Sequence to fold (170 residues):
Amino acid sequence: MTRVSRTAPLLAAIVALALAGCAAPAAGPGSTAEPQPTAAGGCAQVAVVVDFGPLDEPAIADCVAAGPATDILGEAGVTTEGTVDYGDQVVCRVNGQPSAEAEVTIEGQAPFVETCQTLSAVAYWALWVKSSPESEWEYAQEGVSTLELTDGQSVGLVYTPGTETVPPQD
Fold:
């Protein structure tokens, strides 16, 4: 299991913000074709993985048509909300989680309510990408609102508590 220090996600978020304005899309708009699994049961289009971690929500796994990440996530039934400070470049909520009304409890931390003002120091949504089914998960180098994915790639969101993060499990 790969673990990344707390510094890496913060640095990745800063790099993502810096690159967002100059990143060229990797592909054109997504198609409306039905998702196509491979003969082995994998995803021939874009695999979507969402892990809610300590938020006690069921994980999401889907296979959808390539295109902009926001469209891909929407096709998989995933909605995102950004932060006040960074907009859609930093994900604050996925499918309304963590709730704006309920306290989040992270082991070793005081309970808190997520305000979505900025990137939380206690827990956050990490955005991951895989360039091919055989590659390793990597932090996305841009935010969800500018990320484009092509067939064979994967996108993952993991609610990450504490000082270390683990990539999506696929």
